[in-house]
Every structure is written in C-alpha cells, then in structure tokens.
Design a protein that fits this description.
Blueprint: H1 2-26, E1 30-38, E2 43-50, E3 57-62, E4 65-69, E5 72-76, E6 79-82, H2 85-99, E7 104-106, H3 109-115
Antiparallel strand pairs: 1-2, 2-3, 3-6, 4-5, 5-7
C-alpha cells in the first residue's frame, strides 16, 4: 500500500517533468496537455494539443528505460504510437531518425537527477 502511494507520487512528479521538458521543445507547434507515467509497466502516455489540429493527439511510448552511455544518460523506448496516422509516420520516419536515433534521447544535465527516478522501483 505505501509502496503504491510512493510510486504514484513519483510517477506524478516525473510526469510533470516530462511535460515541462516536451513543452520547452514544442512550444512553437503546440503543447502537452497531460502526461501519465506508468512506471510499473514502463509506459508513458502523452496528450498533445498541436496548432492547426482540431483534436488532441495521443502518444504512447512503450517499454522505456534510462540507459547510460559514456557518462551520458539517455531515455530509451522500445516503441512509439500516435493516434494520428500522419504524425505517427512523421515521428517514425523523420523525427526519430534525426533526433532519437536508436529510439533514444539524450537527457539534458539539468533533468538527469530527477529523471533517474524512472529507474527506481
């Protein structure tokens, strides 16, 4: 029971951090409305509002983990899916190859300590 409460609190805090990080990157295109972190199953659910779209876009990152390579931390995910087909294709065919090669994203130093909470059970 206590572990579940602590996990829920951690998930909420890290979700807010992810929301803040993504919003810094996409403010020109829209904003993240909600992030739900499921650390038990290693999934992240993101609800986005994108300028020009009439409906929110839902994104799911499955099988995430934090990895360390050459003293740098990366956020890795096994799979991503997006509710809008054209955005799903854009992310998989353009954005990931350009910015997340190998399905991994460099974690900025200012977020490292907090994001490492994702690895703790």
């Amino acid at each position: 029971m206590l572990k579940d409460i602590l996990t829920f609190g951690k998930d909420k805090a890290v979700s807010f951090l992810i929301l803040t990080f993504i919003n810094e990157k996409i403010k020109e295109y829209g904003e993240v409305k909600e992030v739900k972190l499921d650390s038990k199953n290693k999934n992240i659910y993101i609800q986005l509002y994108l300028k020009g779209e009439s409906e929110n876009v839902l994104m799911c990152l499955r099988g995430y983990e934090i990895i360390c390579l050459d003293k740098e931390y990366f956020f890795y995910f096994k799979d991503i899916s997006v509710s809008k087909l054209w955005i799903d294709k854009l992310i998989k065919n353009v954005i990931i190859p350009k910015y997340a090669l190998g399905n991994k994203v460099l974690i900025p130093k200012k977020y490292e300590k907090i994001i490492l909470l994702l690895n703790k059970g």
